[in-house]
Amino acid sequence: MAELVAKHILGIVLCRSLFQLINTPENILDDAVLYSVITFAGTAAAAAYNYESGVLQAFGNSVIPLVFLVITSLLNVGLDLLFVLSFGWGVLGVAVATVLSQLISALLCLGYMVRKVLQMKLTRADWKWSGAMAKQHLKTGIPMAFFSSLLAVSFLLLQAALNSLGSEDVAAYPTCKIPGSTRPSFPIVLHCGGNAIARAPGKTRKARLAFSTAACYYHKSPTRGENPMAETSKLSTEELLRLLFMESSLEHLMNSDRSSLTLPGFAEYITALCAQRNEAPEQVIRRADLEKSYGHQLFSGRRHPSRDTVLRLAFGFEMDYEQTQELLKVARKSRLHPKVKRDMVLIYCLYHGSSLVRCQNALLEFGLPVLGEGKSYE
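Structure (tokenized):
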């Protein structure tokens, strides 16, 4: 709590100096300071929502935080329009709308947790200080905080370069700052457009132009003459699904480039992995504890591996959990699932970088079949 209060005070006191440091144009400096002071004062609401959302997700409930976030995002848009267009509050209205929406989302999550999450019914014993738990939190939190700080500094450098272009470009920038998505959602476009109009008093023509451009960008979809599957071999599964949902003609989609619609051959994939890692197949085969001639038949494509053999190769490649899941996908084998007891042991060993021998010993310890037991070379 003391850290949060200190951050608020420092943010408010140093706000103007920090904006001047990153070359904020003089004609919007006062508005930028006003917006930041109000949002700094409301940081506790955002922090509370993030904490509550994290707790609910830890209990396996990711739907309720998302529902509350969608509700308050729509509320934020409505309050932006009300405060800026109806009340004429400008930047003040945008800041107040943001803080109010964050506060409401935090209160909604808190109310749900108190009523529905039994573990949130705290007793006096729950408030007892635990040095070991604090140490564990710090061990996890400090690297994450450091990584977030690196991102924040990089965005500040980008913003400093953008600020030198003038206030119109600064106002239009949030419209395009939609991380993780090719097309912004319409509520976010409305919100960013409202911010652009509010942040450029007396110069709303260019801000409205940016707003309109964003709205047109949102509605733009591939035309009949365009190939939405171009360069699809470089796209992830999620991106391919997005293209599939955008395409109005299944025939057009199926007749387009199919290189991304098929997985590479298993032998081709593991051979490429060896080349990429600059190691010989013999090294992988030895670590996977496979018979040498059988291992070379796998690399040449003359034999097809069982699921257990694929997993042994994953240990041979010293893969982590995500890489192992990808290897299973390429081999057309079922992926590891944490609800399966044997898979749970395998996931744990992969995550902690255990060798094949240590993993086999762990399986034996829990009375589970070792990898390759009775069906290594099918």
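The CA atoms of residues 229 and 257 lie 6 Å apart. The radius of gyration is 27 Å.
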